[in-house]
């Protein structure tokens, strides 16, 4: 290992494959010191400016806030708070166009500055070396620091890793053309950056600290060397200028010759990367107690009369910056603003977009500067793109498959290892917007996976339901069978009772005969016999009565059947209206049996509901209350049916169920799909914008 | 305020397909000039015929396919195809053969496959092979270099020969081809091959007047000129070094191996490198982006295989030159080569 650090100290670096050399154009903006700006009219502080979840809102419209006052609070490890960039009044909290390729509106706190620029009481962390590390990390979190190089990954999570860090790499490469914010920051605040590095070093205890700067920034190199000279463990590395040398993976390859394994993180090869801007912000947070409320933004491009770097408060709308840089829109035939660099930046949809923590540059180029790509021509398979690709991909093959929508093949060619650096599209002689194709393909693949996942879940649900329905059906059939059995028995019994009657009649006749005979013949003994016969007859009558009471029950049942069928009719009608496709057969004259079908149809959304309706026919309803009860039951059934239908609607919305409801849902999904593709593309862009000067992408993957 | 939205990158290198193709065309100029110097004006007329037919065919087909042909023609790919074909044809080939070739190249080998970027084979070479198989005599009727000829022939003679088959003085092509001794003078490659078949040694075969210091008169300079043009292409990063280098190395190694085995039976690597279309093939034909391999390793394999086949076909095959055959043969294997030579992506383990 000694040899590796020796090599690095001697300035012997590895190289990464590919790469391009677009015109640098850094002198346009790096000649003047970072300028301070007057306060803008309004500030738009986007609540979520990092990767993760937004913090909990702490203010309400109308509140007066002081500069540096937290506007949101971190409730969870992935939440990073935002702070008031100046003192003033919170006017509204509402969606506002965001610093995102899609320009989607995001929740934003609008602040009207009061012009006093009054700080909240600041509490520096004294003597951080003797404080528990957790406290330092907490301080970094509460200062709202997330990676400022690109992705905006919460810094406090990065600086509390589980594995040992061999190399802490401070990324000051800034390989994108035009941008010079890190350059100026290093030139002017090298010392504070070093303090920030000290803090991170204290937290991580890396074996070596490398500060990487491209060799086209000699002043910055010198400044950092001077700032770090007391500390021999800090190696300032001047690396060859080549785009995208500042990409996290590429920089690691240049410095150490190692590759971050596929699907892994830099920490897996013992490396942790931080951007110089992040180091600066950490020093601010620890030594002065100031949260992250401003950053250096480069204003460049030939449409600015006063290009240069400025300290922009987070939330400053771009229009304010344009004004300060004396933007001349007349020089652009079609107006175009880029946030970020020419290789990986994105076009702004509005000049009201606010500066966020990862905004490093606003570019307003003339047409002459940035030649608009001609119309796309066919790929001639020259593989200039493959020669330029730093990830050693075959862009032309991925493009081929992406265009043909053979997404699995595109994936096979490692589409997801593309860092969207744009080197391939930069060199492509056929002017194919390759990166655009990749973004779309990636978004589509993600969407497909999501859909598949959902379809799987829906299928599981569907199958479980089918099983349940079958079980219930079987149970019901069993019940019916038993009921039928019972009825049959009752009938048999009735028949046998009729037999009893006959015999009773016979007995009575006999008894009468006997009485008569007794009267005629022997009255005394006859009387006895008559008494016996009476007793018998009474007994027989009693028996008969008890059976005939039995007989009443079937009668009651038929009444109850009527009630049930009324309920069923009501239900069926409702169900038919609201949910025709669910149980198509229930529309026909609902008899007792079909009623169960109807309830089966409703059953899918309402399990408990089925029970009472089944109990009723078996029921203990008093015959006298028949009609009233029937009405009540019907009303209940209607209500239930309505609720069931509503439930089911909701259910369908939640999950595109593959059966009954699919046509409408499929339509919906189709439409949604488009929106989602757009959103996903936008997300993908934002996420990957990242990069090149990024130091913070590191744990990006662990999130996604 | 409406803002223009485009996908990153917003910057683009100045290079486009048309400018690349034109650059390739310019770099053939030294070789083109050398060919004119040694073989007269014929090649120029072939070029004109081929370009006219090629562009006409391309425009007509694109029109049929309802595409914007003006834009497509501006990519200059048809121009380059026609140029390469013209450079490969014997200078005094009858006009209709050239025209047919150009039509084949664009109409069949290129557009039928789906146009630029979709063709599996190098269009110029496919046309050349078809012509060679169909009209073997005409396609091998190279005149000796002017410097060795008894009767010279000028601009008008060439024109007349191409369009009528006879020179202004009424000589036929065959009469012109006859050397001082009344024998037909074949190209150096052809001549060496026939002589070896007749039982002569390489050295004896090279004793003829069309040889000079182990290579054919004129051909040496022509190849040298293409080499120079090719080096410019390399310098301008229009082509990669992989294909030319591996091809030339393979030619040298294969020829060298055979030559070492039997110097009498097999010509030297030097002879192979500077005869026929070796240099033209190595720098301008095998490097055709569309039909060549696209991975670095693949390019090495592709180039080396062409070099190998060139020597083998020249030595054992029925036709005198072999660049076209070798290129077409290897074009067929490109998809396979590309598939198995995919580079290792960053962060991935080496495959299998
Ligand atoms: S650079 Fe463009 S034309 Fe060349 S292979 Fe790549 S995608 Fe095709
Ligand atoms: S954008 Fe992707 S494919 Fe293109 S060069 Fe960069 S990493 Fe390679």
TrEMBL record, chain B:
Organism: Bowmanella dokdonensis
Protein name, per record: Ion-translocating oxidoreductase complex subunit D
Top EC class for this record: translocase
Known cofactor(s): FMN
NCBIfam families: PRK00816.1, rnfD
GO cellular component terms given for this protein: plasma membrane
Subunit structure: The complex is composed of six subunits: RnfA, RnfB, RnfC, RnfD, RnfE and RnfG.
Biological-process GO terms, alphabetical: electron transport chain; transmembrane transport
Sorted UniProt keywords: Cell inner membrane, Cell membrane, Electron transport, Flavoprotein, FMN, Membrane, Phosphoprotein, Translocase, Transmembrane, Transmembrane helix, Transport
Predominant place of localization: membrane
Transmembrane segments: 20-38, 44-65, 125-143, 241-261, 267-285, 297-316, 322-341
Role noted for this protein: Part of a membrane-bound complex that couples electron transfer with translocation of ions across the membrane.
